[in-house]
Design goal:
- It is a single chain.
- The chain has helices at residues 15-30, 46-52, 58-65, 84-96, 159-174, 191-205, 218-227, 239-252, 293-305, 309-325, 333-345; strands spanning 4-12, 36-41, 69-74, 101-107, 123-129, 139-142, 150-153, 180-185, 212-217, 234-237, 260-264, 272-276.
- With 346 residues, it is α/β, with parallel strands linked by helices.
- The protein has a domain at 1-99 and 267-346: Isopropylmalate Dehydrogenase (3-Layer(aba) Sandwich).
- It has a ten-stranded mixed sheet with strand order 2-1-3-12-11-4-5-10-8-9, sandwiched between helices. Strands 6-7 form a two-stranded antiparallel sheet.
- A hairpin with a 7-residue loop joins strand 11 (260-264) and strand 12.
- Helix 9 runs antiparallel to helix 10 (309-325).
- It is globular, with a radius of gyration of 20 Å.
- The protein binds adenosine-5'-triphosphate and magnesium ion.
- Adenosine-5'-triphosphate is lined by residues 15, 19, 74, 76, 256-257, 278-281, 283-284, 290-291, 294.
- The site of adenosine-5'-triphosphate (ATP) has 15 residues, from helix 1.
- One of its GO terms (molecular function) is magnesium ion binding.
Length: 346
């Protein structure tokens, strides 16, 4: 294992700046002394776009590639037209670095005011496909501006793309104690894509005899996320279904302030990118109200991805202990970051 980490940091907009600062604080505190951490910060996001019109210039993309991982805060501001930063920056990065696994763990943490408090332990991971489905930009508008306007947004599903994410999900399920994998799709209506997903899911499954499998339509899955979340271990799903399901998962398991994610290129050919699920939250930016825990848990995912399992597990355990100890007194972004940095170091 390499004992140095070259980390690219994109703080981004709004609370992104505030939470990333706490994530770095905890990362520095948890790393053993002999691990050299080099960080390089990238000024990308709404402010940069307003100043220069740039979203993600090619030179910066090339420079980002030269890192072991990327830590992202949040990108977006209501002053930027919808889609500009999403397509020009976030999706551009995801496609360029082939982040085909979008990983979003959900755990029921203590003292979080979730509607599921007091339920048996909830601990599942959603593996969302990251480069295909309706996100490829394949579509268009015809007869624009006329009463007969037509808009298409084509969902692209390749056997190659589906198989590689399904295989990744089987690997993850096989490595967990329960070894259960659920495919979520909508193959009673989306018959072309849905049947291909199911066929590939079954084919790859033959190579993982120890993994128990299940299939749910996405609408049924939303019900079970709320009524029987303990039935899930690993879930694999399409890009758009995964987007919606993981926000729901965040809401029912402790709130958006705790939801972490990784945009992963499992081959290691490109750096993977870790970020909180939440956005830039302009409504609370600058108030110190942002909870940095989601970013700190994203740092744990980053460390695990780079092979620092002990440090990743320590962050997760200390987050749980910190939440356990919360007594309802409001703490600022900085105070939570300081408390967690002290815990992981001590
Ligand atoms: P995006 O389109 O960028 O995902 P969004 O519209 O989903 O943005 P968020 O920025 O995620 O919105 O914010 C949604 C709500 O959650 C806001 O009210 C915001 O204040 C709150 N929120 C988001 N992140 C946090 C956080 N880390 N701590 C506390 N509250 C948060
Ligand atoms: Mg959002």
């Amino acid at each position: 294992m390499s004992r140095s980490i070259r980390l690219a940091v994109i703080p981004g907009d709004g609370i992104g700046q505030e939470v990333v600062a706490q994530g770095l604080k905890v990362l520095t505190a948890v790393l053993p002394q002999d691990v050299k951490l080099e960080t390089k910060e990238y000024d990308l996001g709404a402010k940069r776009w307003h100043a220069t019109g740039d979203t993600l210039p090619d030179e910066e993309l090339a420079s980002l590639k030269n890192h072991d991982a990327i830590l992202l805060g949040a990108i977006g501001d209501p002053s930027v037209p919808s889609g500009v930063l999403e397509r020009g920056l976030l999706l551009k990065l995801r496609f360029a670095f082939d982040h085909f696994v979008n990983l979003r763990p959900s755990k029921l943490f203590p003292n979080t005011g979730t509607p599921l408090a007091g339920r048996p332990e909830i601990d599942f991971v959603v593996v969302r496909e990251g480069t295909e489905g309706p996100y490829t930009g394949n579509g268009g508008s015809l007869r624009t501006g006329t009463p007969a306007e037509v808009a298409t947004e084509v969902s692209v599903n390749t056997a190659y793309g589906v198989e590689r994410v399904v295989r990744d999900a089987y690997e993850r399920a096989n490595a967990r104690p329960r070894k259960k994998l659920t495919l979520v799709h909508k193959n009673n209506v989306l018959v072309y894509a849905g049947h291909m997903w199911k066929k590939i899911f079954d084919k790859v499954g033959a190579e993982y005899p120890e993994v128990t499998t299940d299939y749910l339509h996405v609408d049924a899955a939303t019900i079970f996320f709320v009524t029987q979340p303990e039935r899930f271990d690993v879930i694999v799903t399409d890009n758009l279904f995964g987007d919606i399901l993981t926000d729901l998962a965040a809401a029912v398991t402790g709130g958006i302030g705790l939801a972490a994610s990784g945009n992963i290129n499992p081959t290691g050919e490109f750096p993977s990118m870790f970020e909180p699920v939440h956005g830039s939250a302009p409504d609370i930016a600058g108030t110190g109200k942002a909870d940095p825990t989601a970013t700190i848990l994203s740092v744990a995912l980053l460390l695990r991805h780079l092979g620092y399992e002990t440090e990743a597990a320590r962050i997760e355990a200390e987050v749980a202990a910190d939440l356990e100890a919360r007594d309802g007194t409001a703490r600022s972004t900085d105070e939570i970051g300081d408390a967690l940095a002290a815990r992981v170091a001590g």
